[in-house]
Amino acid sequence: MGVVIRQSIKGTLVTYIGAGIGILINFIIVPKYIGEELLGLTNILLSAGVLFATFFQLGTASSAMRFFPYFKSKDKHHNGFFFYLISLVSLGFILFIPVFFVLKDSITTFFAEGSPEFNHYLLWVIPLTFFLLYWITFELYSNILMRIAIPKFIREIVVRILLIGVYMLYGLGYLDLDGFVTCFVCVYGIAMLITFIYISRIGSVSLKHNPDFISPSLKKDFLSYTSFIMLGSIGASMVNRIDVFMIGAGMNLAWTGIYSMAFNMSNIIEIPSRSISTISAPLAADALKRGDISTASVLYKKVSLHQLLLGSSLFILIWINIDNIYSIIPNGGTFSSGKWVVFFIGVAKLIEMTIGFGGSLIGFSKYYKWNLFFTLFLTFITILFNWLLIPRLGISGAAIATLSTYIIGFGVQLLIVYSKIGLHPYSMGTLKILGVIGLSFIMDYILPTLSNPWIDGLYRTIIIALIAGTLIYVLKISNEANNIIGSIWKKLIK
Fold first, then answer.
1. Which residues contact 372 (CB under 8 A, 6 or more apart)?
2. What average pLDDT is seen over the chain?
3. pTM listed for this prediction
């Protein structure tokens, strides 16, 4: 687990810097220069691109992790692994083009009433999908090689800096709407190119390969696994995107923008999990390949514990200051309608961070086919809950739908992991963290509210952070966390 902690800290540091830039974008630049309608347009556009890119990656996100140990070698070539990875993804993009035009009229009809502006820019989904498809794949290749910091730097910092430039050019009148959408899409093309340049330096991007290396049994296993994963990938992406589409179609772009800002605020909670899960996935794949259930169990518990610990800390920080945040940002009164979206999505994220790594364990095991049934089930209840709740409760209904889906869906996943592999993520540390969360919310309720949002946020954060941090250290929830806190404390007193 030491390598996981070290790599995760590096990746998380980059992600936190990116989050700081993201806060600047979401809480200052977007409300002041872009507004909720244009934010809604870009989020539907990006969600559509991600949805198509995820599906037409043809399951490589999971299959590459699972089968890389079979290709891994001491040289950078890894028996032509990059060739097979890119070939599969390129096939996916070729298949995407006809599928897109078949679905084009249905997509146009779906958004015609609520967000007709999106239909005007629908064709931009094609290049955006291309950029995202290859960018995600290049990132995946880097992650497999256990190099996560630079790809994260590109995703979390470079992309956001480029977006700031695009937003400012539009806000200051140097770009019209067409130019804005063009530059917005091109940002992801630049990210794709930079990531490709990086992976070409750390590994082989040669298309040379040896077909004889792939045995008939390996080929059969790969095709069988990838087919199931591919069928489930569209559902996995739909679960994370259906709310944006249904708000855009059933309400309008303005509400989509308000929801998107609140959702982006909740996304801060999962920052630590991006690094921990990314660096842990190859280790889990290797352990299950060797049949080492004991190592997989320790990994599952530690990933769950540290993701819950870090995620809940951020969730508490955000929620105790939620009213202060909306009172400080430009046009905060408009965006404050998303307050409860932040809460419900935040709780959903904590559930995912605590249990969700079990999906990777299933995917890397011989029971991977269960992930397809799980994903289809999750997709069905996601669509059902959104369809029932958005007309009645608006954007809060979409957030409640997501939370309900996560409670039921990840509960089912937990049962699958336990019944098939015999693993669960819980430990005594889990209960201790939940106790600290509960105490923090009680303290937030008791503390008086000051009229100045800056002063109120500062004193509230300091008091709750000191008490919660002390409890985490005294209760010895995490040896790794205690070592880090102890190291920082020693440096401070010196």
1. 228, 229, 231, 232
2. 84
3. 0.81
